[in-house]
Amino acid sequence: MTQLNDFGFGTQIRKSPFFDATLRWGAKGFSVYNHMYIPRDFGDPEQNFWNLVNDAILCDAAVERQVEIIGPDAAAFTQMLTPRDLSKMAVGQCKYVLIVNADGGILNDPILLRLAENHFWISLADSDILLWAQGVAVHSGLDVTIREPDVSPLQLQGPKSGKMMKALFGESIMDLRYYWLREVELDGIPLIVSRTGWSSELGYELYLRDGTRGDELWEKIMAAGKAFGLKPGHTSTIRRIEGGMLSYHADADIHTNPYELGLDRLVNLDMEADFIGKAALRRIKEEGVRSKQVGLVIEGAPLKGPNTRFWAIIKEGAAVGKVTSAVYSPRLEQNIALAMLSVDFAGFGTEVEVDTGSGTARATVVVRPFYDPKKKLAAA
User: What is the pLDDT of residue 5?
Assistant: First the structure.
């Protein structure tokens, strides 16, 4: 573990219950997500990637703030927020959903958890859905209470995460299915555990329900994982791009819609529920989209890090799209990227040029996700 440094953190950005623990265990850099500090640097990002795909990493994911929806009309209200059909969602189940506005633009792509018949959590990507949901509720005529509970997730991700969960919770935890949750305790620490995570690997999220015990929980997990090679880490840009996972504000935002991203499966226009954005999404589907998300393989030397701005995509001298997320994959030994591209040039095998700001590079449109497209590792 490393010596603490004076990072000069202020009070206007929140710190997670695991903040002090991540400093002790080597966090060297942070960014801000949902108005909270998130560790982004535990050293070499490539080593963090290999730690994830070979063993396991523990990530402070408390920035995934929860929007809690409770009350007699909780199910009806939650359905109003998303175009995904929730009519068959069982208590104890999780679903990846989209939240869209009246124009069909994506506001968030969270995980939805159903804790009880009239009790939901929306586990957020980076946008203020708490305020959106509270605003929608004002004139909805539905009996709901919407708040942010004292809940802070950790992500335990990687092929050995199951062994660590067994060491922590016993054999029974191995029955937990992909995208399902369970209420548990660890030495009196109250938790919700789900088979979910932002890694495309086998993984679990442990939702701490008492922020005063964050330090204690972190140390218990690290101790249990020591024998299995557990390392502290951060969400891996390399692995999430390999898996074609979206990063909100980069690969999706209020100006993109589900059909551009190939997420038609998350929209049910035939269900009876009149969710926000239904008319707009029906119109978009009928008219078709002008842009489409694609995968790119970019030629040239390995990128030295992920892109920090959108890169223009050029075809026949004209801009036809943008690279939203790019990185070098040491496993695939390629520069890989997610991009939004004009549908006229989005066919597999199309060759384009990418303006990286320091020059242009040739690129080819390919199938995405780039690795394990059927999510066999995560669902194992």
Answer: 52
Measured distance CA(104)–CA(79) in Å, rounded: 15
Query: Exposure string (b/e) for 304-327, b if CB count within 10 Å is 16 or more?
Result: eebbeeebbbbbeeeebbbbbbbb
Both tokens of residue 65? 């703030």
Angle formed by the axes of helices 161-169 and 214-225, nearest 10°: 120
Give this prediction's pTM.
0.95
Residue 3 clears pLDDT 50, i.e. is over it: no
Residue 157 pLDDT more than 70?
A: yes
Closest C-alpha among 178, 187, 196 to residue 223: 187
Q: Count CB-CB contacts under 10 A for residue 145.
A: 11
216-250 per-position pLDDT tens digit: 999 999 999 999 999 999 999 999 999 999 999 99
Alpha helices in the chain (DSSP H): 19-24, 45-54, 74-81, 129-138, 161-169, 214-225, 237-242, 278-287, 376-379
For the segment 188-218, what is each residue's pLDDT rounded down to a tens digit? 999 999 999 999 999 999 999 999 999 999 9
Q: What mean pLDDT value characterizes the chain?
A: 96
Q: Give the Cβ contact number of residue 364 at 10 Å.
A: 15
Number of H helices, E strands in the chain: 9, 21
Alpha-carbon gap, residue 149 to 153, rounded angstroms: 12
Domains of the chain, first to last: 19-64+150-240 (3.30.1360.120), 68-134 (3.30.70.1400), 290-372 (2.40.30.110)
* CB contact at 8 A, 256 and 98: no
- Residue 46 amino acid letter: E
Give the C-alpha separation, 166 to 307, whole Å: 38
C-alpha span between 204 and 209 (Å, rounded)? 16
